[in-house]
Amino acid sequence: MKSVETPNHGTVPVVGMEDIVRAHHVLREVIVRTPLQRDAVLSAKYNCEVYLKREDLQVVRSFKIRGAYNMIRNLSAEERERGIVCASAGNHAQGVAFSCNALGIQGKIFMPSTTPNQKVKQVKRFGGSNIEVVLTGDTYDDSYEAAMRVRDEQELTFIHPFDQPKIIAGNGTIGMEVMEDLEGPADYVFVTIGGGGLAAGVGTYVKTVHPQTQVIGVEPLGAASMTEAMEQKQVVTLQKIDKFVDGAAVKRVGDLTYDICTRTLDDVVKVSEGKACTTILELYNENAIVVEPAGSLAVAALEQYKDKIKGKKVVCIISGGNNDIDRMQEIKERSLIYEGLKHYFMINFPQRAGALREFLSDVLGPDDDIARFEYTKKNDKENGPALVGIELLNKEDYEPLVERMKAKNIQYTELNKDQNLFNLLI
Predict the structure, then answer these.
(1) Given a cut of 70, is residue 377 above it in pLDDT?
(2) Which residues fall within 8 angstroms of residue 361, CB to CB, at 6 or more apart?
(3) Is residue 71 classed as helix, strand or coil in its secondary structure?
(4) How far apart are alpha carbons 64 and 90 in whole angstroms?
(5) What is the C-alpha separation between 221 and 242, in angstroms, rounded?
(6) Is 293 exposed, middle or buried (0-12, 13-18, 19+ CB in 10 A)?
(7) Distance between CA 41 and CA 255 in Å, rounded?
(8) How wide is the angle at C-alpha 187 spanned by C-alphas 270 and 33, nearest 5°?
(9) pLDDT tens column, 259-300
(10) Is 124 part of the annotated catalytic residue set?
(11) What is the mean pLDDT of residues 159-182?
């Protein structure tokens, strides 16, 4: 693998076409060549040709196996004998576990104690007797620190989730498959960014074979670490992130992935967590496709590019489909709030008989529905404010609702507009 001098990081390895081609031959042993499907619904909606690269149909339901297997498969005999270690809260752990089982290598996988049991079971199922799952700490950072200590103590090889050349080359095989399966080159390729390993690999291949193709990276708004790095022209660590889009919620992108992405991406856009939720529901309801929050980002970004992609050939990489069904209620809730269809109020009803009845008959519109109602006091309920959640049929019904409350002299606080109160009460 070649190296080059860069202004920011000195000598760094270069991931090239030959590395991706080699990874492609290695991965044929285990991966599914996922379909590239034209999506009729999205194509009609955006007046262009939209194709979905379905990594949600991969053997571990995400692209992560590509990088993990490629790296582990290329370890020396001595490194295999010593074993490997990784830290992950989800898809990377599954890719590493599958690879250990397939190659007969022993591995330790550190995961936060807060990881849902369903994900832990999946990792154990893919890894079998070849892996040991260690639950420690509350966050990925806690697990990472523990994994690094064990790496040093036991001289294990650490399998990074995104910032290693073999990982990036394995991910780049997605770009190779996309460009081979399309009839003619793509005009746009939208790809999720977490730590940057997927975008770096796909961007490298696509720009090598067809530099005119626009490669657009997509980050969650609450964890836009690549955007921040590019603005500051150096890799930075975000102090706080929204962890909802867990597959792409990364405080710090990789040094190598940043260097590659600055040379291969034409743009990086941010998608709000609420928009990601709306996209998850639309893909399920309209296409029967189950995606995780990170897997929705590429499709969600099309709205921001709707004027530029008209009449174009567009590819969206669905990075994964490991969505826990227990999260669906929260996903629906976030979507409704983002779309302006659900609003929460703290309401002080007038202290007189019939006040609540009047609210129902005179304030609520014909299509408005009370989705939540709670008195905030356990005792003397009628003399305390009530938490009221109202679901609308159309977002345009919101202003008339507020005007009717004002007309009835109802005292209220809009919780959707007060993040601290919203987080405390909802």
Answers:
(1) no
(2) none
(3) helix
(4) 10
(5) 8
(6) buried
(7) 38
(8) 85
(9) 999 999 999 999 999 999 999 999 999 999 999 999 999 999
(10) no
(11) 97
> Side chain identity at 275, as an amino acid letter?
K
Task: Identify each DSSP E strand in 73-193 by its residue range.
Answer: 84-87, 107-111, 131-135, 157-158, 188-192
Please state the rounded mean pLDDT for residues 373-385.
Answer: 71
Q: Are 308 and 277 in contact (CB under 8 A)?
A: no
Q: Could you tell me the two tokens for 107?
A: 């591995």
Q: Given a cut of 70, is residue 1 above it in pLDDT?
A: no
Q: How far apart are CA 17 and CA 272, in angstroms?
A: 33
Residue 154 CA to residue 308 CA, distance in Å, equals: 53
In the predicted structure, residue 2 carries a pLDDT above the cut 60: no
Structure tokens at 95: 């890719």
Q: pLDDT (tens digit, 9 = 90+) per residue, 311-354?
A: 999 999 999 999 888 889 999 999 999 999 999 999 988 777 78
Give the pair of three-digit tokens for residue 105.
């290598």
Task: Name the catalytic one among 64, 119, 207, 342.
Answer: 64
Dist CA 205 CA 176 (whole Å): 6
DSSP code per residue over 246-298: TTT--SS--HHHHHHHHHH-SEEEEE-HHHHHHHHHHHHHHH-----HHHHHH
d(CA 57, CA 65): 12
111 is written with which tokens?
């995961």
296 given a catalytic annotation:
no
On the CB side of 217, how many CA atoms lie within 13 Å of its CA?
A: 32
pLDDT in tens, 84-99: 999 997 899 999 999 9
Interval 154-167 mean pLDDT: 96
What CA–CA distances, in Å, run from 140 to 161, 224, 281? 12, 17, 27
- Block residue for tokens 């090889």: 157
The phi, psi pair for 61, rounded to 5°, reads: 65, 25
Residue where the block lists tokens 């996922």: 34
> Of residues 88, 99, 225, 319, which has the active-site annotation?
319
The confidence score (pLDDT) of residue 353 equals: 76
pLDDT tens track for 198-230:
999 999 999 999 999 999 999 999 999 999 999
Whole-prediction pTM value?
A: 0.91
Q: How far apart are CA 214 and CA 187, in angstroms?
A: 6
Q: Whose structure tokens read 């919620």?
A: 249
Q: Dihedral through CA 155, CA 159, CA 162, CA 165, nearest 10? A: 80
**Quick one: which of 293, 257, 246 has its CA closest to 167?**
257
Average pLDDT in the 66-95 region?
95
